[in-house]
Amino acid sequence: SQQGEEDPQALSIQEGENATMNCSYKTSINNLQWYRQNSGRGLVHLILIRSNEREKHSGRLRVTLDTSKKSSSLLITASRAADTASYFCATEITGANSKLTFGKGITLSVRP
Amino acid sequence: GAVVSQHPSWVICKSGTSVKIECRSLDFQATTMFWYRQFPKQSLMLMATSNEGSKATYEQGVEKDKFLINHASLTLSTLTVTSAHPEDSSFYICSASRSQARLHFGNGTRLTVT
């Protein structure tokens, strides 16, 4: 079964709006990471949050982590058409040493 | 920043032939690289962990004789799809870890087997 599950599966918003994507996981983790993938390309690392952290910011990105609920959220503020992509959460399970397990991904469409 | 180069970006081959995909870390040494497979609109499925100087570690259900992995140097890992069949058509992506757990990904290889 999938370690990470994103929600929603697809999201369509207007440029300028905020986009919130959620991820839930099942087992104890070292860290949780968010990646972005443009169609037909590799993944680009966005942000990493460790298990002892609750919130991190990077530019227009804000990530939260709730280990008690085994969930994370990625907020993209003031979205742009160029943010259109698939977003994946990935978890490094405790003891896995850089081995990541990816969720199914969220397709974000930002309408200009 | 760290760059991982994957080659070729796409390949079309006939059924029964073998295809080699290269993954290079351009500006750092990677003792560990990972190979993933991705179906359209699906997640990345880890196929194997490539370890420099030793045998790769394959995930359950991945045929090691079909997907040969060689990690002969600290900057190069190769995945060879042997005796390819149409069901092997997929998007293959490699990644490498430089430090602090984050992965750097190649741009992927689109394999089409006819």
Sequence-ordered SSE layout with sheet pairings:
The complex is a heterodimer of chains A (112) and B (114).
Chain A: E1 5-7, E2 10-14, E3 19-24, E4 29-37, E5 43-50, E6 55-58, E7 61-66, E8 71-76, E9 85-93, E10 100-102, E11 106-111
Parallel strand pairs in A: 2-11
Antiparallel strand pairs in A: 1-3, 3-8, 4-5, 4-9, 6-7, 7-8, 9-10, 9-11
Chain B: E1 4-7, E2 10-13, E3 19-25, E4 32-38, E5 44-51, E6 57-58, E7 67-73, E8 76-81, E9 90-97, E10 103-105, E11 109-113
Parallel strand pairs in B: 2-11
Antiparallel strand pairs in B: 1-3, 3-8, 4-5, 4-9, 5-6, 7-8, 9-10, 9-11
The general outline of chain B is: globular
Poorly predicted runs of 5 or more residues of chain A = none
- The N- and C-terminal alpha carbons of chain B lie at a distance of 37 Å
Radius of gyration of chain B: 13 Å
The residue-averaged pLDDT of chain A reads 91
What's the Cα radius of gyration of chain A? Answer: 13 Å
Strand composition percent of chain A: over 45%
Report the count of strand segments of chain A: 11
Structural class of chain B: mainly beta
Structural class of chain A: mainly beta
Oligomer: heterodimer
Query: Tell me about the biggest sheet of chain A?
Result: 6 strands, mixed
Proportion of helical residues of chain B: under 10%
Uncertain regions spanning at least 5 consecutive residues of chain B: none
The amount of helix of chain A comes to: under 10%
If you average the pLDDT of chain B, what whole number results?
Answer: 91
